[in-house]
């Protein structure tokens, strides 16, 4: 159980920290970075011989970070014992693996290696407080917050009771059961993955007096496509904001203008630009507050499209036009000159979903470079196929072999990924 006072203290501290200018924000980041790096050399064996500035610390991808897991936590825990404990807790859906006073969580639903993330109760309380401060319109007003999640999060455990009431709904339940529970709870704030919001918006438009009428809606845990965002906004009559969160950290949240901002008060973000013309980048993050485990120059597997330079909300935090999902969601294709270039998932999404008759699709780039396309309904296959060919041609790509494939089996827990590269 998390200490409510710690949650409140973190919430109030977050609300009271104001950064009027980018320079003020950068001073705060530099102070925190110095603290994080000094401590890192002292407590994490992996960094014992590291230099004094951020550039002296290596950029780590997830695989490398996991390989050095033992030297990157301050408890001397090793990866095998943590994995075993976490998997046992997942298997019985208790989600409460702890070792040496530290909770062990697995990163969810991604392909490839599962990440293992360690947090103390104090860190969880801090996270919950920060989340409340950033996500709730007011800390004084009563709120009924519903979360549709893959597993019970620390936020739910942290702040039950008081003016803020929580309802946690398991994402693994069938859609009817999720809708029923939410209707019974009648949340003022609803946070759910985009596919759940989409389903709820459709149900809501089909009844004359809907019970489910939250005033604030957050899309969590997956990429929010423009088409889903507009269906949710019209179904509920309020915009779908985004919470950009990963097990690696609480990375961003939309402001009241619906613009996604990076949480640069919590996380220092370096940009590895992968496309000069659009500025698309892969974020390399350093968490400024986490203590049990080092997240220092950790490369996320996401692609971000930078947003407007100045948001009307006045925040000094950088804006993001779109989170395009994992770097695996980028196709790499030869162009007509023979050079390999990226094709970003949102281009494919926009082109194929705009094709006549296409409701949904899944595209995979196979290891041999060919493309496999599954389409719903299946009689729109040719239409989707033509749209994809037109897109490739218009962007100067040599056309790879494209073939139809059956719709893949996806569990409700699986993240929906329309575009994916096998690797
Ligand atoms: Zn803003």
TrEMBL record:
Transmembrane residue ranges: none
NCBIfam families reported in the protein's UniProt record: aden_form_hyp
Name of protein: Adenylate-forming enzyme
Organism, as annotated: Micropruina glycogenica
